[in-house]
Amino acid sequence: MKHTISVLVENKFGTLNRVAAMFSARGFNLESISIGETEDKEISRMTIVTRGDDMIISQILKQLNRLIDTIKVNDLTHKPHIARELLLMTLKLDKSQQREIFELINVFKGKVVDIKQKSITIEVIGSPDKINTAIDLFRPFGIKEIARSGTVALNRGEG
Amino acid sequence: MHKSGQTMNGSEIFFECLRREKVDYIFGYPGGALLKVYETLYDVKDIKHILVRHEQGATHMAEGYARATGKPGVVLVTSGPGATNTVTGISNAYMDSSPMVVFTGQVPSTLIGNDAFQEADIVGITRPITKHNFLVKDVKDMALTIRKAFYLATQGRPGPVLVDLPKDVLNSECVFNWPENVEIRGFKPTIKGHENQIRKAAKIIARAKRPLLYIGGGVVAAEAAEELGKLATSQDIPVTMTLQGLGAFPGGSPLNMGMLGMHGTYWANQAINDCDVLIAVGARFDDRVTGKVDTFATHAFKIHNDIDPTNIDKNVKVDLPVVGDSKHFLRTLLESLPKAREDRSPWLRQIETWREQCPLGYSIDEKSLKTEFVIDEVSKQTAGNAVVTTDVGQHQMWTAQYYKFEKPRSIITSGGLGTMGYGLPAAIGAAFGVQDRPVVLFCGDGGFMMNVQELVTAVHYKLPVKIFLINNNFLGMVRQWQELFHQEKYSFTDLQNSNPDFIRVAEAFGCKAMRAANPAEAKQAIDEALAYNEGPVFVEFQVVKKDMVFPMVPAGASISEMLLDRLNPKTMV
Ligand SMILES: Cc1ncc(C[n+]2csc(CCOP(=O)(O)OP(=O)(O)O)c2C)c(N)n1
Questions:
Q1: Average pLDDT for residues B476-500, to the nearest whole number?
Q2: Which residue of B has its CA nearest to A18?
Q3: Residue A55, CB half-sphere, CA atoms under 13 Å: how many?
């Protein structure tokens, strides 16, 4: 099954590479990986989305822990957490469909970030599921290009 | 020793750090990126630099030294080709968990990434085969980085660590400060195993009717042989070992069952199938050991101790895991064992029956020589007390079967990676570390040629290594598989017409050389070689061309399905 793993790592060059290389060297599935600095400049947070049975996931967690640059590994899958993804998508803009497109953007609480004569670029933020649904529903209008950020996730706050 | 607070250049800091780490040998080879280091080295007297003839040799020597002494092996090589030549040796040390620190020169940091002359991204290349690696970008970080490198290489599960040193960093100056303590946030190995788990293990062991100890190299690395010995003898538990575990338990003990797995003994593999409690210590259930995983020790309650949590449940699901140092595990286990326990004599009798049914053995005739005889004879003449290194192939498996290792740190062999060319440099490295025991190398005619250049190193430093070349004029182990499983198509494995005259090769390098072609000559040559201590001695044993290592578990089969002889490979037991 699909797992979302949050990893705190040393903010050093090569760390992302080391983690990605561990996945490829051991044949683990890597659906998405995203990384960025945290409140502490020396630490980055990585969010990894992967798939596997219990035995594989447990190996993935252990192997991640084993890397010297990883400080903390946390499988969020079965814990309350927030997961978000950013979608940028350019659609064909056909005057006759303009209204429908804008309505759909509203439904997804998306934003128009660029608009031209024949194309429109929008952004949508949401859970990976919501992003998938958005892509499905916009598809009939003619998708020209898509960029997804991959998931970022956090534990839900306490109290 | 220089004091902290002095201003020094990067090269001086480098040696000062090695001094603080109590390094006595560096295995190295110079080059452009290291000119400053070698300039500094010219006046260094307390650390000995060993000039090798190929950087791969340096890494294997460092590993041989590390495994013979327990101290980390140190390598120094230049950038680019010097660095890439270390890849096999680093990989080997990684697979076999040997402590090693490799220093590579690098082009000046301003040129990194420019495809500069003799540039290679060695940090990138070695990322998957090191425990960790570093690029030092500022001379101010050098001391701390070197400290961390030694710490990481030796603590927890040992392994190789690489430090890349750009030329300008080695040339520039800063104030030297030695960090006494290191703190690495992401590295906190569990040393003490969970005490409740160990107590539980003790109870289960006491109730076991047919317990079995399965011991790996982790016990040797943890210096836990004494505790293992106490556990086995006080509890009457038979011991079987992996290739790397050999020596952890004395070869002469009646409880010693030898190696298990693909070329393990019949009785060890039968016992694995039949035991009710399997106690795996410092071993990782490698596929060469388990054979077909789902038929491995199916009746046993499995206890597994390992310092590396990733080894737990990786290949075989266990019932009671204990992450932690093997010495701590065994010691706590001994303290926790209840007084009352099951009687194991029926179990030991059963094992004895298996042993008698299918003992290890070989035939001797006066006119031809067999590898088994040579190894058996060396084992007898050294009373199991030599430090033995091997190359990879049939002779390696026969060494595991016929040399009766009495002590830990006695077998130095490439187990995980299976690197031909490993044995000669590893023997040289071991000989630098160990002076009070003979250092013996068994190698094949194939593997010997892969790092033959290191003979110069042995001769130059007058190292008394005994180089026993087993010449069957074949890439023997591959030939064995070709005979058994590939319709005897001996494709590119017959070396009869392309092997050199080995005696002349050895002599050209300045080595004393002898030849033996029958048991009497072999006995005599071994005797002479063991007595000769002025430098290396080379003996070529001309053995029969077509001998096979038995018993054998074919790849992918269950370890209970052993081939016992060549005549009828299809009848498995
Ligand atoms: C570097 C390397 N290349 C190839 C192999 C594959 N291999 C394993 S055993 C073997 C034959 C070894 O022959 P030899 O050194 O003569 O030893 P013998 O088996 O005859 O004792 C080969 C080619 C290897 N293990 N390592």
A1: 96
A2: B127
A3: 8
